[in-house]
Design goal:
The complex is a heterodimer. By secondary structure, chain A is mainly alpha-helical. Chain A has a domain of 165 residues. Chain A has 9 helices and 2 strands; from the N terminus they run ααββααααααα. In chain A, strands 1-2 form a two-stranded antiparallel ribbon. Chain A is globular, with a radius of gyration of 22 Å. Chain B is built from 12 helices and 13 strands. The chains are: A mainly alpha, B alpha/beta. At the A-B interface, helix 1 and helix 4 of A face helix 2 and helix 3 of B. Chain B: Keywords: ATP-binding, Nucleotide-binding, Transport. Chain B: This is ABC transporter ATP-binding protein. Chain B: It comes from Mesobacillus subterraneus. Chain B: One of its GO terms (molecular function) is ATP hydrolysis activity.
Chain lengths: 248, 300
Amino acid sequence: MYLTKVSLLDVVAKQFRFKLKSFRGMFTSLMLLQVMAILFSLGGEGGGGGGSDTFSYDMKFYSGNIIMAFMLIWAFISAIVVTTQAYRYDDYAFVANRLSSHLANILFLGWASVIGGVTFALASQSLKLSVLFLKDREFIESHPLTLLQMTEGLAATILYLFLFTAIGYLVGMLVQWNKIFMIILPGLLFGSLFLNVLLGSESTFVIDIGQFFVRETSFLLFTLKVLLASALTYGIAAWVSNSLEVRK
Amino acid sequence: MSVLEFDSVTKAYGRKKALDNLSFSLGENKITGLIGRNGAGKTTMLKIAAGFMKETSGDVRAFGEHPFNNLMVSANMIMIDNDMNMPTALDLEEIMASAADFYHNWDMDLAKKLFDYFSLNPRQTHTGLSKGMKNTFNAILGLASRCPLTIFDEPTNGMDAGVRKDFYRALLKDYIAYPRTIIISSHHLSEVEDILEDILLLKDGQQFLHMPVEELREYAVVVSGKEEAINSWLRGHEVFHKSDQAFGRSYAVIRNDLTDDQIGVAMKSGLEFSTISNEDLCLYLTSQEKGGIDDVFNKG
């Protein structure tokens, strides 16, 4: 019997196809989350009102922020799920090695980010429509966007989602490597928040990191920053996983 | 060319050595039975061979390459064991389609026929199967993937007697049509020995025996007779097992290297010779202590 020669890319492509099927539950949860987020958003995010003797007015803001927050959490959790033992071992039921498994995971999470980004754009449109039809209104002001702005918005959403999958992937791998990180990581996160409040300082460590991306005004630089940060994060995750057994 | 080679391989879990300086080499296109008691290191050995685990020391070669984390070995090898993980989202038909995508030699026709024969439901999920059904399905994966190195780790656990027989028969037929290297580990040697060519016996993480099954049948012989006669005659022979029976009679399993003279002397002192099944022999060869379960209950 002759031996089959394999190329890494070929196996990664096969695993990617496999993951599209076997991780499809992730997209079901995405749909549910978006429906929930739209419902929450219908309450409006803020507003105000005023009036005088002869007239009064009420004002409300609606935005896709809640939907976006839900999606970022979804991206983060999905990536953690991918690193759990059961999902990692699924790969080794068939042909895989660590590198092909990581590459296929990154490819899949990238794909999930694209789907997430596109559905987010659609969901925020649905929110607009819902407000239009469901709410009592006399006057609606919507922020008009050019095609370029919309494209950039979509790309930025996808990039943010991808960044969060990278963070989730690293967090998941750290926890798989040593369960102590289940305590350390939340401890660091909340600890830094509380510490900053105690010290009375305005910024916190987590927000400072976020500023690095949020404050960036050049879209090209922003893209570079996100891609480099994601690559670095995924790289560390892959390096951490080297000390795990392939499969028990 | 040897398909699988272990050269003084040790695997330690903390202080306990699951494999202790294990060396052997499996030739191409043979069915080898891996036999050993619980904890003898069978599964550890198979998982190292499959590239799932890394040896602590020593050298492992599968198709001439180190199997751990190796894509080429992974593509040419399948290991079927009881805790195989399958995605919960996929039903059995989709799992087979995925396997077909991954394994170059996959025979969908055979897989489908076996699937129908064992009346599995294509819409079922893997986690929803009973233990026996799960192992039946896994065994189908192992057969239909036609990997040059196919490893079955206790494949028949939970299968009923009919399915076991059918499985071994299917394995033999497919092996004859498409020869490949197959390793089967099993607790029930009597069930598999008809299809085995070689037998590899592990004890305490070490290789105890590695020989063709035919040779194993000639390897040992049973002597029985009066206790005193046996005791005096046994001196100088390699004794694998000895137990006392009722009415002052004794029973011993010894290495079959007797000369005609020795047999003659034995016959004169009223000793009788008989053969022993491979399964019983392997039990005696791998038992931890002299004596047996009876000694646990014998007081004084």
